[in-house]
Amino acid sequence: MGSSCFAGAMEAVSSAVIKNKDMLTDLDRVIGDADHGINMARGFEAVMKKLESAPPQDLQSGLKTVAMTLISTVGGASGPLYGTAFLRCSKAAEGASTVTAELAEKMLRAAIDGIESLGKASKGDKTMIDALEPAYAALSEKMKQGGSLLECMESACGAADKGVEYTKTIPAKKGRASYLGERSIGHQDPGATSSAIILKALTEYCRTAGKE
Amino acid sequence: MVGIVIVSHSAKIAEGVRDLAAQMAGDGAKIIPAGGLESGEIGTDAVRIMEAIQKADSGDGVVVMVDMGSSILSTKTAMAMLPDEMKGRVKIADAPIVEGSMGAAVCASGNAGISEVISAAEEAKDMKKLQ
To answer: How far is B11 from chain A (nearest CA, A)?
Structure first.
């Protein structure tokens, strides 16, 4: 994936988030404050506008634009969390013009570290980390086996989906959902779901871009 | 003088708390509201908070008063984006936003240091409404 593909990849992510706006909001209505989809869609609509009005010079500056836009327009906790994730990706992408499997691994690790240090969440808290940590482990494993970027992303997606399923079995320990405690069991975490949606959109984009 | 930033999901809450605190602390206090989104919607905006912190800082530090949830994450994100030389003198008070801001503003207007201002804000946690 070259830097010219960056706009395409972000468009894929944005349209996936916007398409799933109601689903994410409905998930959040059950165990949160019913704004996750609305907030994420607002943020990614702003990202698309920003990237169209000022196309980035390179991967690093593009990722930074995404980060700053999410930080200031999402409005809920997912804004600083995803914003920080993209900001860390931007730092990891310094000097890079192409996303390789190695860079994808480095960026995903940096993103997760950013989310964990800001949100103080770890695996098993019923958060986006429950989708992202298994995704990273699977991506990293596939890379060690010599997998292509697409194969690595596919592994990551499969693991993220399993992580989302796992969030149904545990009580929430962070955010508004934690007030529900045991009553949050049985419901999947909206943040883990949006993380899986983003990874899936990137993977799908990788698949189509590879065919062109 | 220690500056104070009021972070709320609602711009009206942030401005209202600022008005109330400024009335108690007098004209000298530097209290900057950072509530809501630029669009006017409910939410928190780390960039807006970062700008408010920079505006509130006169070199003596800034205490940030927060309401809940993403106010805290957005403020931490704003603090991470500050210039390095400012990072050490900005703190979040673990205190209720209305009563805590009153205590902090009055204390700051008396030229107290940042740790005293934080304590004044956090004392509000134990305030009894009915004696």
So the answer is: 12
What stretches in chain B show pLDDT beneath 50?
none
Instruction: Check pLDDT > 80 for residue A204.
Output: yes
Helix (H, G, I), strand (E, B) or coil at B63: strand
Provide the pLDDT for residue A4.
60
Question: How many CB pairs lie under 8 A apart between chains A and B?
Answer: 60
B28 in active site: no
**pTM, to two decimals:** 0.93
| Most B CBs within 10 Å, among A28, A33, A72, A115, to test the B interface | A72
Question: For residues A82 and A73, is the Cβ–Cβ distance under 8 A?
Answer: no
Partners of B3 in the β-ladder: B62
* Residue ranges of domains in chain A: 3-211
- What would the pLDDT profile of B61-80 be if each residue is shown by its tens digit? 999 999 988 999 999 999 99
Looking at residue A212, what is its pLDDT? 54
Contact A128, A164 (CB under 8 A): no
* Tokens standing for residue A180: 């529900």
Q: What is the ipTM of this complex?
A: 0.87
- Phi and psi torsions of A77, nearest 5°: -60, -30
Q: Domains of chain B by range and CATH?
A: 3-125 (3.40.50.510)
Q: Does CATH place domain A3-211 in 1.25.40.340?
A: yes
On the 0-12 / 13-18 / 19+ scale of CB atoms within 10 A, A208 is exposed
